[in-house]
Design goal:
about 425 residues; alpha+beta; Immunoglobulin-like; 4 domains; ten-stranded mixed β-sheet; five-stranded antiparallel β-sheet; 7 helices; Plethodontid receptivity factor PRF
Length: about 425
């Protein structure tokens, strides 16, 4: 019976030996500190299918240990309120990101960014082979110095960075009310996004509130017309009474006009366009669009292809009214013409010539009367030359007509034009 028990134990021990991975290579004699604990040192072991993977695993474990050590220290002294279950992970994420940044910026703390094998006190590795699954694995042991002094420096840097971020949040909140460029807003939103990922307490809610404010501002930006003369449009960006600048080039479209150029004048934008292919349509417009973050801002600027055109005509009878007379002549009189303007462009009446049959042409020079706007406009001329009653009267005539010209200038374009009166009806009160 004893022999059977001994045989069984030998078999079991053989299986146990068989199941143990075998050390097939190592860096040297196995040190006493491996898998142990020592004051002011971090001792870890990383594993991997290659020696490099095992080494990198060990270095990452050192970083995690440093971060968790600082997190525990910060947690013990901080007034931040957070549930126990999630606090360490949040602080760890925070510290790994921002303590790393502090380290790279100030160079005062070499940890996290500076953790490397060259800074280790000692290291030891083994290559093991597991016959049961025929796999080779490396184990990398590192003894890394981490003194109380270095931990305090890291905690100090963390607290300094935390204070800086709080101040930065306050600044970004205040700037929302005075920012004057789209680029500043987008830059501030980017900073807020970074803070949003960093904060682990109630400040995260404040970040979200400030971000929402900036998004609201971007959506509230309006495109306001500064000058809209045919062929050229000037507009600016406004937020209430605040002018907002941007270097972003707008997207400009039109159904009929050809866009020639877009110019940034800093205080406003200027768009030049060719409208030769546009008909006279009240819906003619230039569509200007921007995309600021998630906000789309656009506006249609309407234009009138006839804005610079000038055209006039006379349809009603020319009216002559006596002022003074004798038995045979109208010694002085006045003449009224109803001018009909087709377009809004201002016009200057410069010279009028009227020709009635049987009398010398009546020439009115240096008139220089200005009219503007579509519709009817009355032009009154004084006649000092005597007119024979019987020759000029319209009374009793079947079709009293006159001829002549009206010379005028388009004040918008400077173009000089002439309207010809031919068989134009007239009336007299004599």
């Amino acid at each position: 019976m004893k022999k059977i028990i001994c045989a069984a134990l030998l078999i079991l021990s053989g299986f146990g030996a068989f199941a143990q991975p075998k050390v097939v290579d190592k860096s040297g004699r196995k040190p006493d500190w491996v898998n142990g604990l020592e004051k002011e040192f971090i001792i870890v072991v990383g594993s991997g299918s290659t020696i490099d993977m095992a080494q990198n695993s060990a270095l990452m474990l050192i970083k995690q240990n440093i971060v968790l050590s600082v997190a525990d220290n910060v947690k013990a002294k901080s007034e931040l309120k957070k549930e126990e279950s999630s606090y360490n992970n949040s602080v760890s994420t925070f510290l790994e990101k921002y303590t790393s940044q502090v380290s790279s910026e100030s160079g005062k703390v070499s940890y996290l960014q500076g953790v490397s094998l060259s800074n280790a006190s000692e290291y030891y590795w083994e290559k093991q082979y597991d016959k049961s699954n025929k796999q080779t694995k490396y184990y990398y042991h590192i003894k890394y110095p981490f003194s109380e002094f270095e931990m305090k420096k890291l905690v100090s840097d963390f607290r300094m960075r935390d204070r800086e971020m709080t101040e930065n949040l306050d600044r970004l909140e205040a700037e929302a009310e005075i920012v004057t460029s789209i680029e500043e807003m987008e830059k501030n939103l980017s900073e807020l996004k970074t803070l949003q990922e960093a904060f682990i307490d109630a400040r995260k809610d404040k970040v979200n509130m400030v971000m929402a404010r900036y998004q609201s501002i971007l959506q509230s930006v309006e495109l306001v017309e500064v000058d809209n003369s045919i062929g050229s449009l000037k507009f600016t960006l406004r937020l209430g009474n605040r002018t907002i600048s941007t270097v972003k080039k707008p997207l400009v479209k039109s159904d009929c006009a050809r866009i020639n150029g877009t110019k940034n004048n800093v205080s406003d934008w200027e768009i030049s366009y060719d409208y030769d292919n546009c008909y006279e349509d009240p819906e003619n417009n230039i569509l200007v669009s921007y995309r600021f973050g998630n906000a789309n801002v656009s506006k249609k600027f309407f234009f009138d292809v006839a804005a610079k055109k000038a055209k006039m005509y006379v349809s009603e009878a020319v009216r002559f009214t006596k002022v003074d007379e004798d038995a045979d002549n109208i010694l002085s009189s006045s003449c009224s013409l109803t001018l009909i303007f087709k377009y809004d462009a201002p016009i200057i009446i410069e010279k009028v010539t009227l020709e009635l049959q049987g009398v010398a042409p009546m020439i009115f020079e240096g008139i220089n009367q200005s009219f503007s706007g579509k519709g009817n406009h009355d032009l009154k001329l004084n006649i000092a030359t005597p007119l024979p009653k019987m020759v000029t009267t319209a009374t009793g005539k079947s079709n009293p007509v006159l001829s002549g010209t009206i010379q005028y200038k388009n004040q918008t374009s400077g173009e000089s034009l002439t309207y010809r009166l031919y068989n134009q009806k007239y009336s007299t009160n004599w």
